[in-house]
Backbone:
């Protein structure tokens, strides 16, 4: 091949790379104060280009594939919504979302991924406190709907930021904790470690749990991801719809990424702990759950940040098939709070 032909090909490649980089790195944009701001990070140029096209009319759109640029933006800009890809060369999305949770806690956070990685799902719950777990490829209208919903929530929180009040428990006052496990050993561990901090109720079976929910104002629920051989998603989903300040933690050894994604999107679980759980980790998680409940209870407008996605029709039909296993509990929740 002649030298001039090689040079021509090189120039074409360089031009394409330069164009792709320009498309990817949208860091210095003219901010429209009348628009909310969204930040996307992904290592795929075509993904960033597509997302920018979808949201540029409604949002100020920052896009980058550089983790350092991401960190600078969350420090320097008021970002309403953050969408992170999970699998990138230098860092994971969950690591960046954990940083964003500390630096820009008002931002509503999404994890975007083409596959369900179990560790990523757990980290996104425990450290990133993601609003939703999004999968590729996406439905454009559904994506626009959920991003716009998150934007509205973030703007509302921004307006209320300086008017939030802090609620603390009075001396001797305790929150009610429901421990939903058939295994008595687990209940005894919670009772032994937390009897001074919480009023602890043991939901050992459907009827006992039903009675507790009907008679006690529960603030925190701790459960396995399955209860009486059924997924807890319908119970958590209904509780979060009707009692949005309730905090739910899962403690499990039976991990399934699909179940956890459902519990993020449809249950907004606060923590997912893997058994065996170290004493200090469990203690810290329960303290954080108490603080989060008090914050939501005293500031109802914050509850929108943790609103849940509706259970899909086919799952709702499956829920009916699970009766009377879950049906009695669900009926009790509707009766008391609906």
Residues:
């Amino acid at each position: 091949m002649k030298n001039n032909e090689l040079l021509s090909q090189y120039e074409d490649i360089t031009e394409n790379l330069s164009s792709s980089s320009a498309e990817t790195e949208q860091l210095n944009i003219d901010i429209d104060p009348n628009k909310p701001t969204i930040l996307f990070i992904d290592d795929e140029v075509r993904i960033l280009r597509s997302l920018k096209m979808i949201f540029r009319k409604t949002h100020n759109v920052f896009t980058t594939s550089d983790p350092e640029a991401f960190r600078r933006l969350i420090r320097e800009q008021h970002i309403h919504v953050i969408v992170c890809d999970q699998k990138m060369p230098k860092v994971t999305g969950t690591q960046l979302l954990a940083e964003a949770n500390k630096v820009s806690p008002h931002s509503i956070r999404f994890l975007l991924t083409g596959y369900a990685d179990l560790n990523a799902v757990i980290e996104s719950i425990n450290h990133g406190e993601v609003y939703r777990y999004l999968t590729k490829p996406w439905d454009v209208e559904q994506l626009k709907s959920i991003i716009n919903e998150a934007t509205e929530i973030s703007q509302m929180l921004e307006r209320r930021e300086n008017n939030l009040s802090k609620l603390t428990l009075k001396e001797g006052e305790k929150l009610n904790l429901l421990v939903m496990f058939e295994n008595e050993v687990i209940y005894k561990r919670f009772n032994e470690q937390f009897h001074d901090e919480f009023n602890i109720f043991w939901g050992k079976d459907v009827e006992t749990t039903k009675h507790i929910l009907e008679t006690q104002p529960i603030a925190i629920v701790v459960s396995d991801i399955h209860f009486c051989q059924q997924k807890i998603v319908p119970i958590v989903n209904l509780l979060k719809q009707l009692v949005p300040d309730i905090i739910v933690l899962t403690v499990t050894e039976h991990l399934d990424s699909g179940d956890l994604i459902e519990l993020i999107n449809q249950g907004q679980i606060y923590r997912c702990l893997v058994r065996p759980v170290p004493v200090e980790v469990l203690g810290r998680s329960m303290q954080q759950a108490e603080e989060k409940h008090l914050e939501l209870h005293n500031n109802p407008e914050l509850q929108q940040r943790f609103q849940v996605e509706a259970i899909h029709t086919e799952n709702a039909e499956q829920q009916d098939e699970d009766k009377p296993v879950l049906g009695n509990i669900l009926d009790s929740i509707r009766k008391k709070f609906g």
In short: The longest helix spans residues 3-24. Residues 174 and 198 are 5 Å apart (CA to CA).
